[in-house]
């Protein structure tokens, strides 16, 4: 699955989920060793756990292997709710990026309209100042909008309206 176009906000969520699932450097090192035969010291040295996990995420992103990282982390810690949630979000978001990013140049106005239609009315006072300027900004803003836990993800609603 696409890891090269993963938006920054999603990379941050992946980093946070990994920190939650592997709260010490040794636990992270064990997961990398057991799941990938990777020595943590070879890809991330120095700093606190957050810095080290950031370097691990960056390394897997560079190799276009973020999905593999999440799968391996879930194999090692299958009950972690943060990992389960970010895996699902990663799957949805990267699938939509693969589908929609090539269309951004020709259909951006329609993407903005679909975004606007999916947002609660109370979030907008002046649309001219609030509309996102890029596809990635649309994704981030949709992710930032609070929603009920049983509600369909706003990003999916937006794509449904676009199509």
Rg over CA atoms, rounded to whole Å, is 18 Å
Outline type: elongated
Number of strands: 0
Q: Averaging pLDDT over every residue, what do you get?
A: 84
SSE run: HHHHHHHHHH
Give the low-pLDDT segments: none
Helical amount among residues, as a percent range? 55-70%
Percent strand equals: under 5%
Distance between the termini: 22 Å
Tell me the structural class: mainly alpha
Sheet having the most strands: none
- Number of self-contained structural domains: 2
**How large is the count of helical segments?**
10
Characterise the protein shown here:
Helices cover 69% and strands 0% of the residues. With 163 residues, it is mainly α. The protein folds into two domains: 8-88; 102-162, no CATH class. α1 (8-21) packs antiparallel against α6 (81-100) and α2 crosses α5 (66-76). It is elongated.
What are the key terms here?
mainly alpha, 163 residues, 69% helix
Describe this structure in a few short sentences:
By secondary structure, the protein is mostly helical.
Describe the SSE topology:
Blueprint (H helix, E strand, L loop, with lengths): L7 H14 L3 H12 L3 H4 L5 H14 L3 H11 L4 H20 L3 H15 L8 H4 L4 H10 L9 H9 L1
